[in-house]
Every structure is written in structure tokens, then in C-alpha cells.
């Protein structure tokens, strides 16, 4: 009997929606090693401190923690390795033009396993919120919570 593939969100960056006003969303593939994908499937990953940057027209992610897979064998693993992101050329041009504008950043929001079994990273273009915007979002959350209670 064939193994059923696990699909679903593995890690989510909840703080991204609090710190940024998220606009456009993109789905990118990741270039990973064998032990890294096994570690992701087991849920040993964090994307809270990760950020994306361009290195000679190639999009990379830094600060994404993928824990060591204990049954990896002799292969040495670096949990904080810089990883390549895979996107279309048109999407890369669009992202690069928006990042060059003042105040925009590319923020990882979620890591999930696709239906085909590949690790995918959801990215969002966001503009940094000011302090008073953050207070407004907290107030709206509190109001929504009170409405649901009654």
C-alpha cells in the first residue's frame, strides 16, 4: 500500500501580520538537502526570525532554522544555512522592483508541504507598520474577541 503524503502548514510566522501591512503573496520552492526536508516534515523548523534578500538576482532566505535530523548519518548539517528560493523570473522582477521602493520588505509568512510532497514557502510583500498602526490592530483584535464572546 502506498504511503499517504502529509500536506499542510508546518510553520507560521504570526508576527509578520502584526509588524507589516501585507499586500502581495507569492509561493516559492526551497532548495533543500535530504535531512532538511525530513526535519521539516517532522516539524523541527522556525521561520519567525527569517528574512529574504537578493544576491545577484537570486532570491535567498536567511535566519530560517531547520533542526538537525537525528538519523541523517555522516552528513554534517547547518541549521542556519542560507537557502535558495525558487520563483519565476517575472515574479522575481516584480518583487525586486517593489523591494527597491521605500518601506517594502519580503517577509516569509508560512511554510507548508504541497500535495506533491515538496516544501513550499509563502512570502508576502509588506510595508512596515508604525507604532500607532500596531495599537489599532490590537484594539480591533480585542473588539473582535469581545463580540465573539457575546
Question: What can you tell me about this protein's structure?
Answer:
The chain has 150 residues and is an alpha+beta fold. It is built from four helices and nine strands, in the order E-H-E-H-E-E-E-E-E-H-E-E-H. It has helices at 14-19, 34-41, 89-99, 131-149; strands at residues 8-12, 20-30, 45-46, 51-54, 59-62, 65-66, 83-86, 104-113, 119-128. The longest helix has 19 residues, at 131-149. It starts with 7 loop residues before the first strand and ends with a helix.
List the helices and strands and how they pair.
Blueprint: E1 8-12, H1 14-19, E2 20-30, H2 34-41, E3 45-46, E4 51-54, E5 59-62, E6 65-66, E7 83-86, H3 89-99, E8 104-113, E9 119-128, H4 131-149
CATH class: Mainly Beta
What percent of residues are in strands? 25-35%
CATH H-level superfamily title:
Small protein B
- Overall pLDDT confidence: 83
Number of distinct helices: 4
| CATH fold description | Small Protein B, Chain: A
Radius of gyration, in Å, reads: 18 Å
What structural class is derived from the secondary structure elements? alpha+beta
CATH level-two architecture: Beta Barrel
Gross morphology is globular
Major pleated sheet: 7 strands, antiparallel
> What pattern of helices and strands is seen along the backbone?
EHEHEEEEEHEEH
Q: Order of strands across the biggest sheet?
A: 1-8-9-2-7-5-4
Q: Could you list the spans in which at least 5 consecutive residues all have pLDDT below 50?
A: 1-6
Query: Can you tell me the number of structural domains?
Result: 1
Number of strands: 9
Distance between the termini: 49 Å
Give the helix proportion (percent range).
Answer: 25-40%
